[in-house]
Design a protein that fits this description.
By secondary structure, the protein is an alpha/beta fold. It is built from four helices and eight strands; from the N terminus they run βαββββαβαβαβ. Bound molecules: pyrazine-2-carboxylic acid and zinc ion (ZN).
C-alpha cells in the first residue's frame, strides 16, 4: 500500500537550545533522514504561529507557562512563545533533509486557535487540507515521526486513524515533552484509536 512518512515539527524551537525544547529532539533528525528513502512520499509539518497566537503564555498576562486554560474549543496548554512565523526557531532543524519532501504543510497560523494535529485544528473540526492531499495521492498508510511524541505526533496519528488511514508511530524517531504524564496518556490514547506503536 502506498505509504507516506509524515515528519512532525522537526524544527529548531523544539530542539535543545530552542524556545520549547524537547529533550533529545535533535537525536532523531539523522534517523528520520535515513527513513525517508523507504517511503512513497515524504511530508513535513511546520508549526507556524503569529506572535499574537492564543497558545502563547505571553499573551495571557499573569498565567504560568505550561498551565492549562479553557478556550471555546476546549482545554489549551499555554506554551512559551515558539515557532513564530519567519523566525529562526520556526525553521526546520538545519540537518533535516528538507529537499526530499514532496509537501510541507504549515499549521497553527490562525491566532485564535492552536493546531497540534496535522489534519485538524484543536477544535477537531477546521481542516488543514492534509487528508485531501493524502487521499488524492492514494497514500492510505501513514507513518509518523518527529516532535513532540505526546502532542503533535499523537494528535496527528489519532486523527489519521479516525479518518481511516492505517497509522503507525515509529517511537524511536520521536521524543516527548512529557508534561504531567502526557507521554503515557498519549500512548494509551493512540492505542485506543487503533494506532500501531513500533
Ligand atoms: C507542539 C506544543 C505546541 C508539538 C507544537 O509540535 O508537539 N507542542 N506546539
Ligand atoms: Zn505550537
Amino acid at each position: 500500500m502506498p505509504t507516506a512518512l509524515i515528519v512532525i515539527d522537526a524544527q529548531v524551537d523544539f530542539c535543545p537550545g530552542g524556545r520549547l525544547a524537547v529533550t533529545g529532539g535533535d537525536e532523531i533528525i539523522a534517523p528520520i533522514n535515513d527513513l525517508m528513502a523507504d517511503y512513497d512520499a515524504v511530508i513535513l509539518t511546520q508549526d507556524w504561529h503569529p506572535a499574537d497566537h492564543s497558545s502563547f503564555v505571553d499573551n495571557h498576562p499573569g498565567a504560568e507557562p505550561f498551565s492549562t486554560v479553557q478556550m471555546d474549543y476546549g482545554p489549551q496548554v499555554l506554551w512559551p512563545q515558539h515557532c513564530v512565523i519567519g523566525s529562526p526557531g520556526a525553521a526546520f532543524h538545519p540537518a533535516l533533509a528538507v529537499d526530499v519532501a514532496d509537501m510541507i504543510i504549515r499549521k497553527g497560523y490562525h491566532p485564535a486557535i492552536d493546531s497540534y494535529s496535522a489534519f485538524f485544528e484543536n477544535d477537531h473540526h477546521t481542516r488543514t487540507g492534509l487528508e485531501g492531499y493524502l487521499r488524492e495521492r492514494g497514500l492510505m498508510r501513514v507513518d509518523f515521526v518527529g516532535l513532540a511524541h505526546d502532542f503533535c505526533v499523537a494528535w496527528s496519528a489519532i486523527d489519521a486513524a479516525r479518518l481511516g488511514f492505517t497509522a503507525r508511530v515509529i517511537e524511536d524517531a520521536t521524543r516527548a515533552i512529557d508534561l504531567n504524564g502526557s507521554r503515557a496518556a498519549a500512548r494509551a490514547a493512540m492505542r485506543a484509536a487503533g494506532v500501531t506503536l513500533t
